[in-house]
Amino acid sequence: METLAYRSAVRKFYRRMLPLLVFMLVINQMDRTNVGFVKSHLETDLGIGAAAFGLGAGLFFVGYALLEVPSNMLLERFGARVWLTRIMITWGVVVAATAFTTDATTFYILRFLLGVTEAGFFPGVLYYFTKWLPDAERGRATAIFLGGSAGAYIVTGPISGALLEMHGVGGIAGWKWMFLLEGGFSIVVGIAAAFFLVSRIRDAKWLTDEEKAQLSAAVGRDEAARRDARTAKVSRWRLLANPQLLLLCWLFFAMSMVGYSITFWLPSIVKKIQGTSDFEVGLLSAIPWICAIAAMYTLAWYTDRTGRRRPWVAIGLLLGAVGTFLATVGPPWFALVALCLGATGFKCAASAFWPVAQHTLDLKIAAAGIALVNSIGNLGGFVGPTVLGYFQQATGSTRGGLYGLAAAAVVAAAMVFLMRVRHTPARADVTEPAVR
């Protein structure tokens, strides 16, 4: 039975910390993916073709993967308030600098540097959740947070489309205005967030002593349940090579490979609809992500109460594969509808996947493990867009690439059931006295 102090502490976290983290993620995803809306402009102004664009869009994830694990380890040392805001400020600087791209080479360098500076933000927040919430609460928190990712895709289109309409203001191209203003906004929000984020439960001035004790006790019991005595004497580096962790890496790789392909190439597909302006492309590109958010929140509500998440990872991957395949068989309007199904499937799979991954990992490698899964998995964001760019450059169509991505998602869905997941009750019992 849950205590009033525990429920009050959880509600305060959801009310005070989660909205800020979601807002930061919205900006994060907008700055990461806004390049999809300037593909045609980069080709016209700088001569960056489809293959070069796909490679540049994907190089972000190479820099991201290289620095992800070290970044998450530094978050353990410096705390969320310092490290997450540092990440946001520096990625804002790089986004603003992208306005000064002159050719394919500088485009590659800046996309790589964006990955380097952003590394550690997403897994850092997921690790932050494990320090504030027990497992029974993290499914909903993760879904709300991931909703920020889908929400970013909703607002990125209209905002980026509107900024592109500033073309010629002050003698500056619209795509340059987009990068300058969106990057500058990230810097401002990152500085402001440093005054509001709280790294640890005991430092939260807005929690009473009893609320701190009850919430800390619930998190402590959850950590004890995840601590595997059999691995107590095994080094962190050996644990990082265990088969379950590698399986998690592959599953998220497949999700990222197809999910980011949809993200980066959706505006190009929508732009094929005759008579659409940049702003209209942005509005239409938001539709799949609206569908994804509604489905994600419904699924999170259900899985937090049943504790059954693993089957939904597989179902989401299969739905994503079907949507990706159907996007190849009809006109642009039908492709947009099919990608609504694809985006919904992959976002639902991710929202169910991360609580499973968090609970599967041993405590000794929680921070490094989450970062490794996210960094290696996000390399799919390099492979998918690069493959689609190659197919479009070579054949004039992305159809062959989409077929391959859909097949990879089906394979990943079949492998979901190889995960060994500890059983956890849907709600934690928090009536035990706090241990100081």
What does this molecule look like?
Keywords: Membrane, Transmembrane, Transmembrane helix, Transport. Pfam families: MFS_1. Residues 17-424 form the Major facilitator superfamily (MFS) profile domain. With 436 residues, the chain is mainly α. The chain has a single domain, classed as Growth Hormone, Chain: A, CATH 1.20.1250. The chain is 76% helix and 0% strand. It has 19 helices and no strands. Helix 4 runs antiparallel to helix 18 (380-395) and helix 14 (287-306) runs parallel beside helix 16. The longest helix is centred in the middle third of the chain and has 30 residues, at 135-164. The radius of gyration is 21 Å and the shape is globular. It starts with a helix and ends in a 21-residue tail after the last helix. Mean pLDDT is 82; it is low at 229-234 and 423-436.
CATH superfamily: MFS general substrate transporter like domains
What is the CATH architecture annotation?
Up-down Bundle
Radius of gyration: 21 Å
Helix/strand structural class: mainly alpha
Helix content: over 70%
Count the domains. 1
pLDDT average, as an integer? Answer: 82
Portion in strands:
under 5%
Keywords: Membrane, Transmembrane, Transmembrane helix, Transport
Membrane topology: Multi-pass membrane protein
Main location: membrane
InterPro entries: MFS, MFS_dom, MFS_trans_sf
Name the features:
globular, disordered C terminus, 436 residues, mainly alpha, Growth Hormone, Chain: A, 0% strand
